[in-house]
Specification:
The protein has 4 helices and no strands. The chain is 62% helix and 0% strand. By secondary structure, the protein is an all-alpha fold. The longest helix has 29 residues, at 7-35. It has helices at 7-35, 50-60, 70-73, 77-85.
């Protein structure tokens, strides 16, 4: 059965497989980074079954990006621009 496929079949299928693994990884890294976690957590998104548990855990925990210290808020660009315009 294996000799029935040409080399081009394997090249195309390998590229499709890589694309289907890299595209979700890219989305996962962006989401995880915006939530305030390390981008390495996105590796859990490509592992079968583990990604379901990771998604469930990720949905119900407190995200670090939700908690910002007041001293950090004063240094943001929007805060400084608002103070300049008033």
């Amino acid at each position: 059965m294996m000799e029935a496929f040409s080399v081009w079949h394997w090249v195309v299928m390998t590229n499709v497989f890589i694309f289907l693994m890299l595209l979700p990884s890219w989305f996962f890294t962006r989401i995880v980074a915006k939530a305030g976690f390390s981008r390495w957590w996105a590796l859990l998104g490509v592992l079968p079954l583990i990604n379901l548990f990771a998604l469930w855990w990720f949905a119900f925990i407190d995200w670090p990006s939700e908690y910002v210290h007041p001293s950090v808020i004063r240094t943001t660009r929007a805060y400084r621009d608002a103070r300049r315009s008033s």
